[in-house]
Amino acid sequence: MSHVRENLSVLAAAEKRALIWLAQRLPQWVNSDRLSALGLASMVAAGLSFAALQSTPWAALAVVVCLAANWFGDSLDGTVARVRGQQRPRYGFYVDRVIDLAGTTALLVGLACSSAMHPLLAVGVLAAYLLVSGESFLATHSVGIFRMSFLGFGPTELRLLLAAGAIKVAQTPLVDVPALGEVRLFDLGGAIAIGG
What we know:
Layout lengths: L3 E3 L5 H14 L6 H21 L6 H25 L5 H25 L5 H25 L1 E3 L7 H17 L2 E4 L3 E4 H11 L1
Parallel strand pairs: 1-2
Antiparallel strand pairs: 3-4
Helix pairs in contact: 1-3, 2-3, 2-4, 3-6, 4-5, 5-7
């Protein structure tokens, strides 16, 4: 399968330059498979850190670190392969999508186990994510374009929102919404995500 990656997110151009710069400077033992493994492990750790928010607000710091590690591994794996001329398009696309599905599931399970988001909303967000992912994968196969962003938001912007949300929730999980009163931040974000 040959396809074009399309990322029209707000940070895409700057991120691409940064990733190429990083990929050119990484030691040879840091390969795309190891970066992919880091991406998955750090997303699982982010989910565990979200779950730990019930016990300590300091878990928010772990969420931020894990999301940064996820960005490093998940965003850099394909760039390293391209910079080194070691692309495996079919394998890379498959592995990246499986890791995205498993990592997002782990993250949302962690949110469901925390006090930051109602478990049913977390399940709803996961269901919506899986439906959108399925549509995206089918569209990629049909038209040959893998769209990575929507309305200026891509994976990096979503990581930044999650990190900011974790820091806010560590202080107080509630936000005041006109006409609704106080609601949990991640419940509001989850409802918006499902609607989107």
